Amino acid sequence: MATASDQISPHEAALRERRREAMSVLASSDSGEIARHLRALGPLPPHEDLRAGENGMVMVRGRIGGDGAPFNLGEATVSRAAVRLASGETGVGYVLGRDREHARLIALVDALAQTSAHADVIERHVLAPIRARLDAARRTDAERVAATKVEFFTLVRGEG
Amino acid sequence: MLTAGFADPVLSAQSTFRAVLDAMARPGSVQRIGAALVPPSPFARGAAAIALTLCDHDTPVWLGADLAAHDDIAAWLRFHCGCELVAAPDRAVFAFAGSAADLPDLAAFDLGTADYPDRSTTLILQVKTLAAGAGLVLTGPGIRERSRLLAEPVPHDMVARLAQNRALFPRGIDLLLATDDAVAALPRSVRVTQEA
Q: What is the pTM of this model?
């Protein structure tokens, strides 16, 4: 089946993949953390809100098992925003929850990451520290859970 | 390049909705649209404000040739309204025409059905001038005796076209005339004659 992604250039595909990965890192973070890293970068290029942050809902679909029929599980609150830099790059942000500022900051980082001038700085000073913190938290959780792991097995009863 | 929508979505959409409502209730009256907006050229501010207020993912939108020729208008509508853009005028719930020359036969739009006349297309035509004055003479519901509307430029056979549309009543399209900062309505119930 031909989809839109079949017709894009390799460069465009790589950019999309990078944006997707950045989006998942930023969505797992929070607005305070992103804002702190952005502040450390110093003055940002001029930008405006293309779509001011707004709240809405998305229908979450679920299925039971790999072959179950899809059903509507329920609605989840999401926030979204779009930011455009003066140079034209447009960034979008979608995140679960009601934090509109979080969505706006994700959009801003997304826009900056598309510019050649800021992509490296954003990757090194915003995305990398957040990714490192998330990885560490995930590892700590995994270790704590692993320590309480219980193996169940049934002893073979003797003949009797 | 994509530009922003309403700076204050709720209040701007409410005031624009009120302007359209008043225009429809009093055909031929000129209502101000004050919403601050920078739509892509040549989309008039008033017409763009109406689009942001009324169009969403449930309303297929048709664009006249000179608006459709600008890709950024289509992109702007898709981004801010999330509406589907259709090529067939009779599938559209809202239709935007950039100029009088661009206006197809009114019967080309969805005229509604006898059971559901409300499902017809609402057509928004961009004009340069909109004022109370010599030009079209209107009578009908919502008008005390008669009202006069100067709208320029409109097709030279506007009166005949609107008479044909009136003859279909209760079916037929509703017409909104929009400039950068004003709107007037010629709903299907209005009778139009040209001032001698």
A: 0.83
